[in-house]
């Protein structure tokens, strides 16, 4: 087992990984940029090395600098977390080349899965269902138009190196097909330096359902069931849950076994996620594989009792996967809400500032994975996700109720957050019924702005906080008497939970 690991990340995931290392008696090295001096991952680690300039390129994306720090601190392995360098094959290779173990799959597998066309072709050959479409060699305009007509409309144009909707176009009719292909190619070229695209039938009422995989370096592979990730906004997941409300025993068996086939086909090792699209008739299709630990891994941990980060570390150190498929069981129901520093009443623009009071509710089966503390700076340099709130219960309804309870008591001052928005989504009748697709947010929350009506419990608590800070409350919080129920306001620096005037 490793004696020391460098964590090439920041925020809540760096905290999550450091805590796993502490439990395993592994020393940790944290890296941090100049705006992260007060970040919790820095306080938790055994050694900390400053990266200087906060721009991502100069800090958390700086491969030579990070590898050099790992060598100098004698770290034997690097955990990349998610985002930043987690799915960068050059980084994985740079680590392995100097004898530092990259905690993840091999560079070749990362590169293969990074190319959505190659991944799709490989899985089609392996007999895994893929979304009907064109993913061939011909990339000239007229061939692609011809193939597009064969598929029919609506169809989707996707970038080979894409993901997250970049370079993607929905095409509803033939007369805009050519220009959509061209503009997708242009966008893809500027975003990924490559303009290879592929075409897919546009699925009706799709759900995004993914399977967690663990594979050791000796050929043992298991899946840890599904996560329903359909609730997203602009290709960012915001709420995930497991089990999926549409899943049944038979479908789970089929999809789980397809996910294991995907992993085995490419000789996958470590933790990974196989993403599927599921249509209204419960047909499922392989979409892509994420070759990293995912943001939403905690809901799988809650329902299986398996610590995914510890297994990543054990697998990377060469241990056998002791978990057998038949021993794994899914029990109860877990939901995760992603807490972002963003302003729902202002186009979800990232909100920056220095954090004041942070009060996260605790209670039975409430998990807080956060990377925030009072005094920490929230800057525009990095992803605005502050924390993840997870609730677990014996069934979906109870999990939802617990989440509503917890969100109502979640306080972050200093920046605006999406907490109130999350609560509205969770409370939506169609969400409660489990009637969700990837278009849920655009369907039901299109021009959503918070209706400012009054003063809820969170604001009352916030007022007490202001008092304790010797500030005059009437200068800080105002609300409209005629709107007796809702979220509050702020004036000046401090904001509560949701929104800004
Ligand atoms: C799809 C799809 C429907 N059919 N593929 C791909 C990237 C991911 N973030 C969203 N993706 C989708 N791929 C097929 N064949 C629906 C989505 C999708 C989506 C598409 C257009 C506009 C908004 C969307 C939101 C979520 C998912």
How would you describe this structure to a colleague?
The protein is built from 17 helices and 23 strands. The chain is of the alpha+beta class and 501 residues long. It has an 8-stranded antiparallel β-sheet with strand order 14-13-10-11-12-15-22-20. It has a 5-stranded parallel β-sheet with strand order 3-2-1-4-5, with helices on both faces. α4 runs antiparallel to α5 (107-114), α7 crosses α8 and α12 packs antiparallel against α13 (419-427). It is globular and about 60 Å long. The model is unreliable at 470-501 (pLDDT under 50). It binds ligand MV4. The site of ligand MV4 has 14 residues, from β9.
The share of residues in extended strands comes to 15-25%
Dominant shape: globular
Summarize the biggest pleated sheet.
Answer: 8 strands, antiparallel
Number of strands: 23
Please report the distance between the alpha carbons of the first and last residues.
53 Å
Q: Estimate percent helicity.
A: 25-40%
Mean pLDDT: 91
Assembly type of the chains comes to: single chain
Radius of gyration from the CA trace?
23 Å
Contiguous helical run count: 17
Are any ligands bound, and if so which?
Answer: ligand MV4
SS content category: alpha+beta
Give the uncertain stretches in residue-range form.
Answer: 470-501
Strand order of the largest sheet: 14-13-10-11-12-15-22-20
């Amino acid at each position: 087992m490793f004696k020391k690991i460098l964590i090439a990340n920041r925020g809540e995931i760096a905290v999550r990984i450091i805590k796993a290392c502490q439990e395993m008696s592994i020393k940790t090295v944290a890296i941090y940029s100049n705006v992260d001096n007060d970040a919790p991952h820095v306080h938790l680690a055994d050694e900390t090395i400053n990266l200087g300039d906060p721009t991502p390129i100069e800090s958390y994306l700086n491969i030579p600098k990070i590898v050099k720090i790992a060598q100098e601190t004698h770290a034997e392995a690097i955990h990349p977390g998610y985002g930043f360098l987690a799915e960068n094959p050059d980084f994985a290779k740079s680590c392995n080349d100097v004898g530092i173990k990259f905690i993840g799959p091999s560079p070749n597998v990362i590169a293969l899965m990074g190319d959505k066309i190659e991944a799709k072709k490989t899985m089609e050959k392996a007999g895994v269902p893929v979304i009907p479409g064109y993913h061939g060699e011909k990339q000239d305009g007229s061939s692609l138009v011809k193939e597009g007509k064969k598929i029919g409309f609506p169809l989707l144009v996707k970038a080979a190196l894409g993901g997250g909707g970049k370079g993607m176009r929905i095409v509803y009719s033939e007369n805009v097909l050519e220009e959509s292909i061209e503009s997708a190619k242009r966008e893809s070229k500027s975003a990924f330096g490559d303009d290879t695209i592929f075409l897919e039938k546009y699925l009706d009422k799709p759900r995004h359902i993914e399977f967690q995989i663990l594979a050791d370096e000796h050929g043992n592979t298991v899946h840890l069931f599904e996560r329903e990730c359909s609730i997203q906004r602009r290709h960012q997941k915001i709420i995930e849950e497991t089990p999926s409300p549409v899943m049944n025993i038979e479908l789970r068996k089929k999809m789980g076994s397809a996910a294991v086939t995907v992993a085995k086909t490419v000789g996958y090792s470590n933790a990974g996620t196989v993403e599927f699209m599921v249509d209204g008739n419960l047909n499922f299709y392989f979409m892509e594989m994420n070759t990293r630990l995912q943001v939403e891994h905690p809901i799988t941990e809650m329902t299986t009792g398996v610590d995914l980060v510890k297994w990543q570390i054990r697998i990377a150190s060469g241990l056998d996967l002791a978990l057998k498929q038949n021993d794994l069981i899914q029990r109860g129901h877990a939901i995760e809400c992603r807490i972002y520093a963003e302003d729902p009443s202002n186009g979800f623009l990232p909100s920056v500032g220095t954090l004041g009071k942070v009060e996260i509710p605790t209670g039975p089966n409430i998990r807080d994975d956060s990377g925030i503390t009072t005094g920490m700076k929230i800057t525009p340099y990095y992803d605005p996700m502050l924390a993840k709130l997870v609730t677990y219960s014996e069934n979906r309804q109870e999990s939802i109720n617990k989440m509503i309870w917890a969100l109502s008591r979640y306080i972050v001052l200093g920046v605006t957050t999406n907490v109130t928005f999350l609560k509205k989504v969770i409370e939506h009748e169609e969400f409660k019924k489990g009637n969700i697709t990837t278009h849920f947010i655009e369907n039901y929350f299109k021009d959503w702005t918070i209706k400012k009506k009054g003063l809820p419990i969170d604001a009352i608590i916030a007022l007490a906080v202001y008092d304790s800070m010797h500030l005059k409350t009437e200068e800080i919080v105002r609300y409209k008497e005629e709107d007796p129920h809702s979220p509050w306001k702020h004036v000046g620096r401090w904001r509560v939970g949701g929104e800004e005037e």
